[in-house]
Amino acid sequence: AQTVTQSQPEMSVQEAETVTLSCTYDTSESDYYLFWYKQPPSRQMILVIRQEAYKQQNATENRFSVNFQKAAKSFSLKISDSQLGDAAMYFCAYRSKFYFGSGTKLNVKP
Amino acid sequence: DGGITQSPKYLFRKEGQNVTLSCEQNLNHDAMYWYRQDPGQGLRLIYYSQIVNDFQKGDIAEGYSVSREKKESFPLTVTSAQKNPTAFYLCASSINRNYEQYFGPGTRLTVT
């Protein structure tokens, strides 16, 4: 069975600093996709970043980057230069099935 | 503008009544999905559809039904058989099952 685990229910970061959110997953598949989504208080789910499992290079989108460790089944999200607008719930998601982690609430302190 | 719409934003029903949640997309996506989100939890898949007139059960399909008569529309019916229907419901679509999903704004259903 595939599962996605986010072990940090809540985290805090000072504005302009860097924070890393953890995600691990369990799978027997070799080909899959991983995503990070952001859910602000509006509850609109917004795609942050995507990683294909066959790619060794870590995905990057502006201030957001991932550390993808396929052998360890780990997919962490690094947010650099944190901004107040980054405060939200962050969900890790696994595809080829449709599994989401339980989320990490990120607080950004001014 | 392209996107996904869900209506209404808030919905109230009496126990024992069926209720249908609307989801429409104009992104020309083949795949559409319904998720349920409960407080403090992630998303759980109810149903998904990869093409018109075809759909598959997700992890928590009991008490729910769907139809996919048009590419743009994927309505979800919450039946009286669903034991705990009060939740936040999110609809999503994607080009196909391996691509990122785009989400609607959600419908908060309260059943009393």
Summed up, the helix count of chain A is: 0
How many strands of chain A?
12
Average pLDDT of chain B works out at 93
- Average pLDDT of chain A, rounded to a whole number, is 94
Q: What is the N-to-C order of secondary-structure elements of chain B (H for helix, E for strand)? A: EEEEEEEEEEE
Distance between the termini of chain B: 36 Å
Overall spatial form of chain A: globular
Main sheet: strands, sense, barrel of chain A: 6 strands, mixed
Residue runs with pLDDT of under 50 for 5 or more positions of chain A: none
SS class of chain B: mainly beta
What is the CA-atom radius of gyration of chain A, in angstroms? 13 Å
Largest sheet of chain B: 7 strands, mixed
Uncertain residue ranges of chain B: none
* Helical content band of chain A: under 10%
Q: Helix tally of chain B?
A: 0
Please report the total strand number of chain B as a whole number.
11
What distance separates the N and C termini of chain A?
A: 41 Å
Compute the gyration radius of chain B: what is it? Answer: 13 Å
Look at the helices and sheets of chain A and give the structural class: mainly beta
User: Could you tell me the strand content of chain A as a percent range?
Assistant: over 45%
Characterize the structure shown.
The complex is a heterodimer of chains A (110) and B (112). Chain A has 110 residues and is mostly beta strands. Chain A has no helices and twelve strands. Chain A has strands spanning 3-5, 10-14, 19-21, 24-26, 33-39, 46-52, 60-61, 64-69, 74-79, 88-95, 99-100, 104-109. In chain A, the strands form three sheets. In chain A, strands 2, 5, 6, 10, 11 and 12 form a six-stranded mixed sheet that branches. In chain A, strands 3-9-8-7 form a four-stranded antiparallel sheet, with no helix packed on it. In chain A, 35% of the residues are buried. The mean pLDDT of chain A is 94. In chain B, strands 2, 4, 5, 6, 9, 10 and 11 form a seven-stranded mixed sheet that branches. The mean pLDDT of chain B is 93. Chain B has 112 residues and is an all-beta fold. In chain B, a hairpin with a 7-residue loop joins strand 9 (87-94) and strand 10 (102-103). Chain B has strands at 4-7, 10-13, 19-25, 31-37, 43-51, 54-57, 64-66, 76-78, 87-94, 102-103, 107-111. Helix content of chain B is 0%, strand content 50%. The radius of gyration of chain B is 13 Å and the shape is globular.
